[in-house]
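Box S1 | Example of a co-folding query
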Amino acid sequence: MESKLTRGGFAYPGTTLVYKTGSWRIQRPVHTHRNAPCHSACPAGEDPQAYLALLDEDKPREAWELLVSINPLPAITGRVCPHPCESVCNRGQYDEPLAIHSIERYLGDQALAKNWAYPVSPAAENAPHVAVVGAGPAGLASAYHLIRHGLQVTVFDELSEAGGTLFTIPDYRLPREIVRKEIERLLDTGISFKSRHKLGREIHLPELQQEYAAVFLAPGVMKSNEWSVDGVTPYDLHEGLHLLKQWSDVASLPAMKSAAVIGGGNTAIDIARILNRNGVDTHIVIHSSLPDPDKPAADDMRAIPREIEQALEEGVQIHDHHGVKRLILRGEKLTGIEILRMRKLPDEEGRLHRVAFEGTESILHVDQVIPAIGQVVDAAGMETLLDGKSYFSVDDWGQIEGKENIYAGGDAVEGNGGTVTEAIGNGRIAAEAIAAKLRQQQLPTINKSEPVHFNSLNMEYFEPSSRVEQVILSVEERTCETEIEGGISGLQAAHEANRCFACGNCLRCDNCWTLCPDSAVLKTNEVTFDGSFYVFDYDYCKGCGLCASECPTGYISMVNE
Amino acid sequence: MNEDTQTVTPETLMQLRKNQPRFEGLESGHRACLGCGEALAARLVTEAAGPDVMIANATGCLEIFTTPWPESAWRLPWMHSLFENTGAIAAGMEAALKAQGKPTKVLAFAGDGGTFDIGFQSLSGMLERGHNVLFVCFDNEAYMNTGIQSSSSTPHAAMTTTSPPGSARMGKQNLKKDILSIVAAHHIPYAATASVAYPSDLRKKIRRAMEIEGPTFIQIHSPCPLGWGHDGADSIKVARLAVQTGLFPVIELESREMIGSMPIRNPKPVTDYLVLQQRFRHLFQQGDVRAIEELAHIQALADHNIKHFKLRGEGMDAQDSDGADTVCRGGMRWA
Ligand SMILES: Cc1cc2nc3c(=O)[nH]c(=O)nc-3n(C[C@H](O)[C@H](O)[C@H](O)COP(=O)(O)OP(=O)(O)OC[C@H]3O[C@@H](n4cnc5c(N)ncnc54)[C@H](O)[C@@H]3O)c2cc1C
Ligand SMILES: Cc1ncc(C[n+]2csc(CCOP(=O)(O)OP(=O)(O)O)c2C)c(N)n1
Ligand code: SF4
Ligand code: SF4
Ligand code: SF4
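Box S1 (continued) | Returned holo structure for flavin-adenine dinucleotide
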């Protein structure tokens, strides 16, 4: 054919492939998996981006399996976690954040309804054996992850049932049958549970240390802080957490007409809401602020903002920035309390401290004052480890400082915010550390890289889409038993999963493949070594950076040659 | 993970290249500049039109960068015409194929110089005679291959080497020619504009034109990083802003009537578009009242386009979801 052409140029098709334009390049595109903000913010360590992706591909069971490879109690956390993931969700800067907690709950509930088995197998009989004390979320999560790592586990709890403080969270927020079902299934993964075994009574630390390869302590905080006003208390003082436990055990409360709850945590809010539902005129007195989205959260009440909001809706009266000055007693019987305004102000060294303002006193006519000002670890049986302190001091991996093979987690450790998800995260991390130690392996590195910023996403490729909202019972419909917030449907979950930007990960959207002017992005059928569905052909990539600019998720970055 | 761990061998890459799930009319190894809009546009066109086509290609960047003899980047029968006779060459190819009874469609490719100016006469004749040819104009708004000379497609106020800004004038004085109306005035069945920023829309239009028996015309707005003076990484961004400001209306005409447009929900100010490009940098000269006037003029041109072509869309989307390329997992949205 060539020989017939006597004049003009002739070339075979596609022969420019011999010329490697990649040599022009001074920078190259690379796929960089970066943590999504939701992932970095989750105290349990979940990667919502990853399971939302599976759900978006209509693989709910795989999504749940991935979710429970980190957090084994999603039906529970989907209901009670304050979801810091949603506060940082990049979609919040575009329209509304993903309803991650609703999806988490949906997946958890699906697993309960369909009895999906946890993706773990029981440990070998000769595997090392670890003891866990306390069957709250921290202890249970550690036990589950120890099993995942092929170790044997026995969990001890002084109570007759596993679940810890989860049973103190009222049914209208966290139904006990959900807690029971999820925990029962979790224990079935091969965890041996010994109820009515209290450390310091039936079992003792030295024996545990001798008989087990390692010990994880998750006793929670069982001892209430002492409360009085200048040493004075009413003779029939009931403490908030105690009342809540009494309510959850026998559904009865001492008779009262009006009450002032002192404190601003979840216990204060929950006991106030229960009293209020039982016809008690209920006040909360708290020296910190009501949460305000427009103000820094530094001095906010510790309870979950959504719960505070619902308590206010229901008619609980919250006196924020107030403290108790004096109890008004007739004999030993309370008839009221005198409260006054206070604020957190800097002292001479700039440290914040509370200042009470004279002349702002007022009287609350209440016949009960109920302190709910927090708890500390009950040291009995663990005195040597606490060394006089209120909480355990642990390192990044949960190991109690200076104690070989003794770890702690959950509410009982210093600096913890007191949430279920943090407890679960502590349990998982300690389990990893214990497993690595027992196998004489290196500890995995903790990924503390900066999450993908909103500015590195390309918003041109997304469209507004409204967030699914769970159905909430009206104030009139709310009782102490029925759950206030409903779940979402499969269709709603799919809609929501589709809203995820997939921050820092391959969305398989074909943008780079479609837009590269040099056909230097090749599409693959199977997922590639880096978790995407494309490879760069550096023989031809000129390094223009167009693919990186147009990647909607910030997954492609340009690096210098 | 990074390139250091990439385990793909050259053999598997070549295998992969051969098995891409799309028709590749234009192969890698071409010599276009980094981020060239014209190279992307040409690949998208052949992807939607091929493989049963033949191309007549006018002189210009596209011709030069795809055929550095003895190599060719084309995987299609392709022929270089003169600058001025692409329409005539394509018409002749079409007549020959017809005589042989072959269904192969003829495409004519040209830059804006080869379409609006030098090749215009033969294009007009081809359209008038009703040849079954799809003429694609790769509009990069100047004669780029010879070093950025002004064409009748160069927009008002743009700097080129033949329209330098200075004391006498602020870049090109005349307006960008409305080639689509002129072409449509030949009573052809289909004429449309498209942009590399909206590949699905572009490919849909190519397929629409391929179905039509008779002369059809598509003008594709194709940013040129070199001639426009923007970062190659921003080619799509620049093209998108041309559409979102109203400066480049994306429309379809059938028998001279407008039958479709890509609506703009929230028009962006023209300065968003202009500021990214060095060819407009004199419009951002502090203290020059002529610059302020020219910016206002260009904004007025955009506003006029939006009104004249009724581009203003409604609804919650920033951009029309049909034409705009909203991503979804799995790449399913690409038409
Ligand atoms: C009223 C209320 C509402 C709350 N609401 C929320 C909420 O909405 N969201 C949220 O995230 N968190 C909430 N919390 C906090 C949450 O319940 C705790 O952070 C979480 O349960 C801590 O888990 P843990 O495993 O550390 O301890 P716990 O759940 O307290 O479990 C500790 C376990 O250890 C056992 N134990 C203690 N000492 C011993 C011993 N010596 N020997 C053997 N066993 C022992 C206990 O019996 C218990 O079962 C709430 C808490 C309360 C009180
Ligand atoms: C009749 C004729 N005049 C001038 C030239 C020189 N020439 C070659 S390419 C070119 C510019 C092409 O510009 P355009 O058609 O806009 O395409 P672009 O290179 O911008 O893609 C010119 C002027 C020529 N080849 N033939
Ligand atoms: S958009 Fe998706 S990946 Fe990004 S922060 Fe929100 S939930 Fe996470
Ligand atoms: S768009 Fe293509 S040529 Fe440009 S950097 Fe990406 S892979 Fe390389
Ligand atoms: S000069 Fe412009 S049109 Fe020509 S190859 Fe370079 S970027 Fe493309």
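Chain A has a mean pLDDT of 94. The domain at 7-33+505-560 of chain A is CATH 3.30.70.20 (Alpha-Beta Plaits).
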